[in-house]
Amino acid sequence: MTKTQPNQIKIRLAQPQDRNQIFDIRRDAIQILCSRDYNFEQTQALLNDTQLDKSQGGETKDIVFVAEIGEKIVGFSAYSRYWVNAVYVHPKYVRQGIGTELLKAIESEACSQNVNTLAVCASITAKPFYEASGYQDFGKTYISSSSGVYIPCSRMQKWLSSATEAEQLPSDSLTVICRFLQWVLTGK
């Protein structure tokens, strides 16, 4: 693991030329970090699923942030209204606050759009990260890859500081959102 100082981390909007580095980070994080929590078939489904690629800044209108140290991209996050689509940090740079900074960028963007609630289908690997960031677990669910492999995850949600109780999504709405995201990603 390469140690960095927080003031060395720069968060910025992704540019088209960042795409290959973003996908390399995603691949490395899945192969190295997620393989601890998912079997080979699930890991391969995550790596090979082009529908998931599209949801993580590849070909959508997601807002994508990257974290840089110097000129090197070491992490990224992707957001679409109400939804955290991705937070990935290269395995050499985990547990140094980079993911937290990327998530804060998403939350700040959501607040600027008057979004009061963010949801995520967190991987088993990422669940502790989201819990530490104030997201509440609303139960287990799964996403289904385009090849039909089920990938377990947790429905999680965070009410941003400006959310009133009346504006918070009930957990059954979060289930609907997770199922809708699965349909968008895989058509199933």
Structure in words:
The chain has six helices and seven strands, in the order βαααβββαβαββα. The C terminus is likely disordered. The protein starts with 8 loop residues before the first strand and ends with a helix. β6 and β7 form a beta hairpin. With 188 residues, it is of the alpha+beta class. A four-stranded antiparallel beta sheet has the order 1-2-3-4, sandwiched between helices. Strands 5-7-6 form a three-stranded antiparallel beta sheet. It is globular.
Topology of helices and strands:
Elements: E1 9-13, H1 19-32, H2 40-48, H3 50-58, E2 63-69, E3 72-80, E4 83-89, H4 98-112, E5 117-123, H5 127-132, E6 136-144, E7 150-159, H6 171-186
Antiparallel strand pairs: 1-2, 2-3, 3-4, 5-7, 6-7
The gyration radius over C-alpha positions equals 16 Å
Helix percentage: 25-40%
Overall residue-averaged pLDDT value: 84
Count of extended strands: 7
What order do the helices and strands follow?
EHHHEEEHEHEEH
- Poorly predicted tracts of residues: 52-58, 163-168, 183-188
Going by helix content, strand content and strand pairing, the class is alpha+beta
Query: Distance between the terminal alpha carbons, to the nearest Å?
Result: 39 Å
How much of the sequence lies in strands comes to 25-35%
Features:
single chain, 188 residues, alpha+beta, three-stranded antiparallel beta sheet, disordered C terminus
